[in-house]
Amino acid sequence: MKPHGIMFHHFHDDYKHIRGQGSISTDTFELIISYLQKNYTILSADEWMDKALCKTLNDNEICLTFDDNLLCQYELAYPVLKKYNIKAFWFVYTSPFKGELEKVEIYRYFRSAYFQEINEFYDSFYNFIEKTEFNSEVKKALENFSPESYLSDFSFYTNEDRIFRFVRDQILKPRRYFIVMDSMLKDYNVELNLLREKLWMSKENIKELHIEGHRIGLHSHTHPTSVASLSFNDQMIEYKSNLEILSEILGEAPESMSHPCNSYNQNTIKVLEELKVKLGFRANMKNCSNAIYEFPREDHAIILKKMGMKV
Ligand SMILES: [Zn+2]
Question: What is the pLDDT of residues 59-93, one digit of tens each?
């Protein structure tokens, strides 16, 4: 296997940070680290980056990466990293520092906090769609849809997950999806203002990670689900504001990044070159070209599967 990153997102403690789809406990996180240490060499982010740039990474060398500046990562995963003395990459999108509540994360919280099972949420979601003008379009598009072949790179998705993602990303698309979800949130009386400090790290948290020797990298400003569908200029705005805000927090410009939702194209690569970013990560192991902006990453869910643990 080629050198790669391991990608982490959500952590739970069943107390402050609730369990959600794909979230792991600190115990599971420690088991993953032990498993990785047995089978690979975990390098610090610094060393991994230096070796990646000199093309001297060995096949068994990996690094740990955390996307989306989530407070649960800082409060739950970071203490474990301290215990094992591992320095990681943290890919940060910056709109939460500007007071914007990123819908993707809010909606995820809503799904976990207000529903026992993800399929319960899906049912409620489709019930809501039935009350909208999009109903017949969604019904029609699903008639000939076969979930097995959609997003087949992501082996851990259930068919229900695939159908939901198809409806969200291919049929409704962001604007109309937001309309449906926002009306659901209103119906469930979700208190949006309380969520900002609950879900995301503060600037101080990011700065502390940086000072402690972790590498902070770009992840766009607003975390679009499809960067590749944006124009060159819009992509530049996304990554330039991201870079400027992070540079101000860190006192230096970040040199690494990961692609939100694995979405990028030739324009993204040009933007990253112009912004003097040195290294980028994908969100899966496909096309392991190890091109400088396309280093592969394995999702922690796939590691858990390899370990024989329930995802
Ligand atoms: Zn992300």
Answer: 999 999 999 999 999 999 999 999 999 999 999 99
CA angle 256, 278, 6 (to 5 degrees): 40
Ligand 1 centroid from CA 310, angstroms: 23
Ligand 1: centre distance to CA 8 (Å) = 10
What would the pLDDT profile of 181-210 be if each residue is shown by its tens digit?
A: 999 999 999 988 888 889 999 999 999 999
Residue 262 CA to ligand 1 centre (angstroms): 8
Rounded Cα distance between 66 and 281, Å, is 11
Residue 307 CA to ligand 1 center (angstroms) comes to 24
What is the residue type of 90?
A: W
